[in-house]
Design brief:
The protein is mostly beta strands. Helix content is 3%, strand content 46%. A hairpin with a 5-residue loop joins strand 25 and strand 26. The radius of gyration is 29 Å and the shape is globular. It starts with a strand and ends with a strand.
Length: 681
């Protein structure tokens, strides 16, 4: 058997170091991620955090023992605002204390928000709540009890939305006297602003990232149109306008959906309401023409939310002042249907009787329904109510050859004191509950179940004109990206990693709050390229934590490999690229790793239906042997118990499982190894 060794760049493997928080940093959060480098030969670490610089270990607040299988620890309970802390990590190898890895300090910032909460039922959605506030320009995250976890600090960030991967989007306020003063952004809890749109179009309502990596958001477009006849006519005629409903004489402001290239920020696709909507459709009841008299500009459509449907390759657009939701084919731009209140053109295809008005936010649910927050500015007119009320509504839509059919699938009418004439949103939660956010009563998020029972409430204690809540969402946590990348074979004091059976074994542990998809391109200098795709889920589902082993075909003694992250949105620590060099430099006897051999090569492989594998251990250990599918789900336990030193044989019968690749994983308290097996029927 050849002996191969691996050197890699971008991570210092000679000496361990503290990576995060950086020494002297100020954190706008009290949930803190601690990260350090792997040290050769160590199998666990001790993390200590203290307010006492001179006695971190003896006076520790965080005294986390026996951290194994990860180079990251997230503290969520013991730290406070406006404090300075000191931390270090102590390495251990087989219960023997090693080096103290650095000493660093960090400070927590100052709490900004003044939110309060109330719990009415234990069936609340677990997680945190993030909200953004306009006019005082900040965002914050609170827990179930109202404790502030994170805030935007000195950056004027207003939260808009987040996607399933934990990417956060919003706007940055850059000054009242600046044109386009709310540019759309993507931001992270660690690094601030990660991307900002070029600012050539005013944007303050919605922005997110497309599956192709580009960004899409709402900008402003301009045109001209008539001043329709109505109660406002004399006012405009007094200014010298014809105001006859026909003369093109007045500035109309509309909306434009814009797609920007992620790298160049160039506009690569757009859709303009002036190209697709009929100007015979306009608000005549909500007072918009009276506002136009004062501003000398008619705010025609006032689009405030977009949603991209990857399955249908379509965009949903909410036009507030038209009381309309539109489905648009992407990239053709064709209008597939319009949903909402009938106006002059007759272009509404369905939902004329649902009665929503001046709505905010969009969410397409897994069942195909559309969820929106009905502000209800025209609820007295549309719903024959005595008082204006806001609703959260779920709309069942059936597409037809001529457009669509729509009906109200679910609604929750907010209490009258929570009526919100602008802003707000509704979110369908993972547990089936709904979270409605309104500016009513100082800004409120109210979680209810499908029956309308109140579960949980947050009040943000904001008051116009200084502040109003724009949107709020429940999220799993503030750490979408928190991963440990460990090379189990890295057991020497050099930068070489021992290769067993021509395999590069990489253990990836997700300590974050979101499951993530990673797409890696493995390039070999004298062989074909490999695409490696895998998903890893958070640590609170340890049975689903993916341990990946990459099998490499070595054509020569000095092959060069590169492992490149293709996902784009996610960078695994700092490792965009790893270079691998294989050499016949040392013999087996000169390396102490042979005693760590645990799981032998399965045989036969491929197999049908029985596969065999041997396990060898050097001392008495608790051994777990499990079978996983390619998604990382454990499908069968082969053995779990204490075994004395020796070699053991096991097998697995895959008769009741489909053909394909599976993973056999063997782990002890000190090491973990896995092998790919292929069932072929």
């Amino acid at each position: 058997m050849k002996k191969y060794f691996l050197s890699f760049i971008l991570i210092n493997l000679y000496f361990g170091a503290l990576l995060y928080p950086e020494d002297g940093s100020i954190m706008n959060q009290i949930y803190i991620k601690f990260e350090w480098e792997q040290e050769a030969g160590n199998n666990y670490y001790i993390l200590n955090v203290s307010e006492n610089q001179n006695d971190i270990q003896g006076d520790c607040i965080v005294c986390e023992q026996f951290i194994s299988g990860s180079l990251i620890y997230i503290e969520k309970n013991l730290l406070e605002w406006d404090k300075t802390y000191y931390w270090h990590v102590i390495s251990y190898e087989n219960n023997n204390q090693g080096d103290t890895i650095g000493t660093a300090s960090f400070s927590t910032g100052t709490q900004i928000a003044n939110a309060t909460t109330a719990l009415y039922n234990d069936n609340t959605q677990a997680g945190l709540t993030i909200f953004g506030s306009f006019f005082d320009y900040y965002s914050a995250v609170i827990d179930e009890d109202g404790n502030e976890i994170w805030n935007s600090g000195e950056q004027d960030l207003i939260f808009y939305n987040t996607d399933q991967y934990g990417r956060f989007f919003g706007a940055k306020f850059i000054g009242n006297n600046v044109e386009n003063n709310y540019p759309g952004i993507k931001f992270s809890f660690d690094n601030g602003i990660d991307w900002q749109e070029p600012g050539e179009n005013f944007i303050h309502h919605d922005i997110f990232q497309l599956p192709n990596g580009n960004y899409i958001g709402l900008g402003t477009s301009y045109g001209q149109g008539p001043i329709p006849i109505g109660p406002w006519t004399p006012l405009f005629q007094g200014l010298g306008f014809e105001a006859d409903g026909e003369t093109i004489e007045f500035d109309w402001m509309g909306d434009k959906i814009i797609e920007w290239d992620a790298d160049t920020k160039e506009e690569v696709w757009s859709w303009d309401v002036f190209d697709y909507f009929n100007q015979a459709d306009y608000d005549s009841l909500g007072g918009i023409w009276f506002e136009a008299y004062n501003t000398n500009r008619f705010d025609w459509t006032h689009a405030n939310a977009i949603w991209f449907d990857e399955e249908d390759s379509a965009i949903y657009l909410s036009s507030r002042h038209l009381n309309r939701i539109t489905k648009i084919a992407y990239p053709s731009g064709d209008v597939l249907w319009n949903l909402g209140h009938e106006l002059g053109s007759g272009d509404i295809d369905c939902g004329q009787n649902i009665g929503f008005s001046f709505q905010h936010s969009l969410q397409k649910l897994n069942n195909g329904n559309i969820l929106t927050f009905d502000n209800g500015n025209l609820s007295r007119e549309f719903l024959n109510q005595d008082e204006k009320t806001s609703r959260s509504i779920e709309i069942d839509i059936t597409e037809t050859a001529t457009g669509c059919e729509a009906s109200l699938a679910w609604e929750y009418v907010l209490p009258e004191e929570l009526y919100g004439y602008l802003s707000g949103n509704t979110q369908k939660l993972d547990n089936g509950n709904y979270l409605s956010t309104t500016i009513g009563n100082g800004g409120t998020s109210l979680e209810v179940n499908e029956s309308g029972d109140e579960i949980w409430e947050a009040n943000y204690n904001l008051q116009l004109p200084d502040g109003l809540v724009y949107r709020a969402m429940k999220i799993p946590g503030i750490f979408p990206i928190a991963y440990s990348l460990i090379f189990p074979q890295f057991e020497t004091s050099t930068s070489y990693i021992y290769m067993q059976d021509e395999q590069l074994e990489v253990s990836i542990y997700n300590n974050g709050d979101y499951a993530q998809l990673f797409n890696y391109d493995l390039q070999v200098s004298q062989a074909e390229d490999y695409d490696i795709i895998f998903t890893i889920t958070p640590e609170h589902h340890p049975e689903h934590t993916k341990i990946s082993t990459f099998s490499l075909s070595v054509a020569g003694d000095n092959e060069e490999f590169s492992l490149t992250n293709k996902t784009g949105s996610f960078i695994l620590n700092a490792n965009e690229q790893i270079e691998l060099y294989f050499n016949d430099m040392l013999d087996t006897e000169s390396n102490n790793l042979t005693t760590n051999f645990l799981l032998g090569n399965p045989y036969p492989n491929p197999f049908n239906p029985i596969v065999n594998f041997n396990v060898a251990i050097s001392e008495m250990e608790l051994v777990k042997l499990n079978i996983y599918d390619i998604q990382g789900n454990k499908i069968q336990s082969i053995y779990s118990g204490v075994l004395p030193k020796g070699e053991y044989s096991f097998n697995w019968n895959g008769e009741n499982y489909a053909s394909g690749m599976y993973i056999v994983k063997c782990e002890t308290n000190s090491i973990s190894q896995n092998k790919k097996i292929f069932l072929m029927k």
